[in-house]
Structures are given as structure tokens and as C-alpha cells.
Amino acid sequence: MFISAVLFGLLGSFHCIGMCGPIAFMLPVDRNNKTKRILQISMYHAGRLLTYGLLGLLFGLLGKSFYFFGFQQQLSIVIGVLMILIVLLPKKILNTARITQPIYKALSGVKNRLGKELKQQRADTFFTIGFLNGFLPCGLVYMAIFASIATGNSLSGSVYMILFGLGTVPLMTTFVYLGNFTSRLVKKRIQQLIPIAIVLIAILFILRGLGLGIPYISPVHMSETVSGGVICY
Question: For 186-204, b where at least 16 C-beta lie within 10 A, e where not — what string?
């Protein structure tokens, strides 16, 4: 499951460049001092990872409540189905449903604060920018959050989101250094791969929930019926 987090991050980083690339490119990094520039970019990523870790902690805790009531298998299936639906449903339908509108409205203050921080040169500027950046609406982040819920506990949810964030670091760092370095054709091809990767990961979640007894992919249910009774492991 945790491998899917890194894959989300690696593939999703091309999507992140479209969403967060302008912010990364506008980072007020020191172009003359290499050591200072590396430290500044590292602080930016540390801020993003902290946000992702906190989101994973929160939503992993939500998933734990489902596990507590014995819905772990069903939850994994539901998460997988939701991922597939989000990929397959036309954007017009999703926009009509206005699912993300409250989120965008709630985070308008984050965008305003982010704009102000990009003009600052304080010691904590880069960490703050990264921290705020992590809250910006992003479809791939939503997918990773879904997956963190399915982990079933706060620690695993946090680790999942941090691994997702780490997957975005290489390409985002390269973008800060080199700007718009990737050709439009390459970006288009990778953007086309993202929905496929999401569907494949969603299928893994569904298989995990079905408990088919496939090692590492679809482990058996946490309870089995033996001789008319139920044995809990």
C-alpha cells in the first residue's frame, strides 16, 4: 500500500507542476549562494511534508473509526470505487455537484496568506510557504487522502501522506532550479498516464478489501468462520 503513495507522488508531481509550479518557480530563493538555496528549497519541502503528514494523521484517525466498527474491508472497497468514479466521471458532472466548492472557499484565506509570504524574506518564509502550499486544493492530494483513510490508523495515514509528498520532491525541486524544463508533449503523455495509475491503485484497494487470500495484495479477512463460530485474529 505504501508503494502506491510514492507512485502517486512521482506521477502526480507532473500534475503538481501545473498546480503548484508557479509557486515553486516564484520562491524567493538565493540564486547566488548554492548552499543557502538548497537549504531554502529543503525548508519549502519540509513545510509541505508537515502539512501532508498532519492531513494523513487527521484522515487516518477518521479511518480508524471505521476499523473500530469492523468496516475495514468495506472501507477499502469504497475508497477504491470512489477513486475510479472520480477518474471516469466527466468533469462537468463533478463541477455541477460542486463537491470541491466549499473547499476552495474555505482555503481562500490560505491563498491570500501565501501571496503575502512569497514577498517576504524572513528565515521561516520558505517553511511557511511550503506549509501553506500543502493545503492548496489538488486532485492528486485528494486521492492520497482517500488512501490515507483506508490505512485505518493515524500513524499509517500520516506515513502514507508523507511518502506521497516525498514522491513529488524530485520533480518539484528540479522545477525550482530549471523552471519549465519539460516539453509539452512529455507532460501530455504523463498526464494521460495519471488516470491509468489511479485506476490501477484503486483496483489494488478493492482487491485488498475483498480479502481473497492473495499475499501482499489481498490478505484474508481479519476474521474467519470456523466450525460455525468466528475466530478473530
Answer: eeeebeeebeebbeebbeb
Range of the domain at 171: 2-232
- Cβ atoms of residues 75 and 150 within 8 Å: yes
Q: Which of 37, 1, 39, 48 is nearest to 147 (CA)?
A: 1
pTM for the whole thing? 0.77
Give 108: exposed, middle or buried? Use CB within 10 Å, 0-12, 13-18, 19+.
exposed
Instruction: Compute CA distances 119 → 28, 48, 114, 115, 137, whole Å.
Output: 8, 18, 9, 7, 22
Residue bearing cell 513545510: 47
Counting every residue, how long is the chain?
Answer: 233
Q: What is the pLDDT of residues 68-98, one digit of tens each?
A: 677 777 888 888 898 888 888 766 555 555 5
Overall domain count for the chain: 1
Number of other CB atoms surrounding residue 169 within 10 Å: 18
pLDDT digits (tens, 9 = 90+) for 155-192: 999 999 999 999 988 888 887 776 555 556 666 776 77
CB under 8 A, 24+ apart: contacts of 107-115: 107/135, 107/136, 107/137, 110/135, 110/136, 111/136, 114/23
Report the alpha-carbon distance of residue 27 to residue 41 in Å, rounded.
Answer: 8
